[in-house]
Amino acid sequence: MATAALLIASLTACGSGNDSKPAATKACADAVFDLMIDQVNGADTPDFRPDACADLTDAQWSQAVDEAGDKVLAAGGAPSDDADAEAPTEAQFKVGEEARNRGTVVTIKKVREANSITFDGAVKQAGADAKYVVLETVVRNETKASMDLTCSLPIVNALIDDQDRRFDTIEDLSDVQGNPECNAQLQPGFKDEMKFVYRVPEDANIVLWEFEEYDLEAEVAPSLVDLT
Questions:
Q1: Each residue of 142-188: pLDDT tens digit?
Q2: 41: closest CA among 72, 67, 68?
Q3: Cα angle at 86 between 187 and 186, to 5 degrees?
Q4: Residue 13 has what DSSP assignment?
Q5: Residue stretches of the chain with pLDDT short of 50
Q6: What DSSP character marks residue 104?
Q7: What is 36-81 written as a DSSP string?
Q8: Any residues with CB less than 8 A from the CB of 130 and at least 6 apart, and which?
């Protein structure tokens, strides 16, 4: 895939020639996936490998990037030929209802707009011609594995306005006041409060929230929540 090729071209030069090093660890695979998601979303990405992948050979690194590219497609982070055919066109859930996507259950308790949020212990302003949209939710984990709600991608999500524009959450959700800490694993059978925060144009009319369970093995159709 194009994203994998781009990452290989920019990062393989940092590799080691020792083929006896171990294959990619889970930490490395997660780091490459996060890096690729950032690149797909247009963020500036470093031109060196993540620290967790420093010991890989060039061949192992190329394999890790290829596998991460497949995960991005499965997670919905890059377009596929049949993406439009599988995406729902109408909301299945409303605010206050338990919205389910496979084993991921999210209840949106409140949707609010704000000029500022408490971030990393300080007030962070949205800035000129912008606002924050905050979804106050409860996430229940009914999957077979733990979830890292703030520093990984267990829930692929997007905020959608009436122009069909899609917005990503702000970075470092673990720094939002009241959110779970980074790497605080939500175990199966438990629930936790979680704020999904987005910075959008001041005049944006938000209508939908889309989410899906992150799954490495299968394509997952998203669920839609009506926010109007």
A1: 999 999 999 887 899 999 999 999 999 999 999 999 999 999 999 99
A2: 72
A3: 5
A4: G
A5: 1-6, 8-21, 77-85
A6: E
A7: HHHHHTT----SS--GGGTT-BHHHHHHHHHHHHHHHHHHTSS--T
A8: 199, 200, 201, 202
